[in-house]
Amino acid sequence: MTIDDIKSLLLKIEEKPFRAKQIYRQIHKNKVNDFDLMTDLSKDLRSKLKDIASFPKMQYLKTYKSKIDSTEKYLFELDDDNIIEAVYMQYDNRSTVCISTQVGCKMGCKFCASTKNGFVRNLSAAEILEEVYTIERNKGDINNIVIMGIGEPLDNYDNLLKFINIITDEKGRNLSHRSITVSTVGLVDRIYDLANSNLDINLAVSLHYSKDKKREKFMPSAKKYKINDIIKATDYYLDKTKRRVSFEYVVIDNVNNTREDVEELKKLFFGKNVHINLIKLNPIEEFKYDKPKENTVKDFCNRLTSNGLNATIRKPMGSDIDASCGQLRNNYKR
Ligand code: SAH
Predict the structure, then answer these.
(1) Phi, psi at 103, each rounded to 5°
(2) Beta carbons of 281 and 249 less than 8 angstroms apart
(3) What is the predicted pLDDT for the residue at 334?
């Protein structure tokens, strides 16, 4: 709820709307998610609030800790027993959480674990927020949020925007817009909407292939959204927000790192203020391609940069606990 939503709720139960500020502070500054612990409110008000409102359940079902880096992966159980995953990472004294926006995913990308069990439902703005706060209660305030967990964030657009508006609210958690990155498979109409919403957040687009034909083979959404249209939309985004746009590119050896791919990427991006973020394919059971060798990815990166493109390799984290890109899913066996 926004602070105004809480005011309306208070009016409905014939309470003073100025209490909204206190409640909002408890939730977003003190991270309290239990009305009984809001001891600055009268017992009577607390009990009335309990009757009319609740916090979403975000229960730790399991925590996996990586042995190779600081990464932790959490399995959270929701009110309706569905399960989502979120990841906590620390790097150079900065902490980042990677959060989910849906239970499952409709997009059907062949290489991604998150979509293998289909789509179940959207997460509410409160649930998305509670992922962050649940982690912050244990780990302290985090610096960055990457919306790159389970689901397609722009397919849950209204809740995503509500979540961003609340977590960046100066009167509450006050996280800066620039600390937030949304990753999308490339839902063109929504990229325009996001640009017009005037939020200063970072945008990452999962490109992965340099030509529509190949992209369509691995990413069903590519049949509807063509690369050129995606780039027109991201150009608009860049122009409107002045935020740098990045393109994620999962390297699959001999599939999308050929000489032709370098040429095509050059045609698409040469001279533009975009960043190509190379990701090593992380193996998942259902996608029978190998993880590329370190040198294969480095070599591809070098070929891109020597052709004048701005490319870097994303540091993989938490791969030993299936917490890396594309490995999150919702099928924990109880
Ligand atoms: N639906 C959004 C958010 C998911 S972000 C999107 O598609 O962008 C997760 C990132 O990991 C995406 O770039 C996704 O394409 C990538 N990814 C998926 N499966 C992967 C895998 N097996 N190995 C490496 N990256 C993968």
Answers:
(1) -90, 110
(2) no
(3) 66
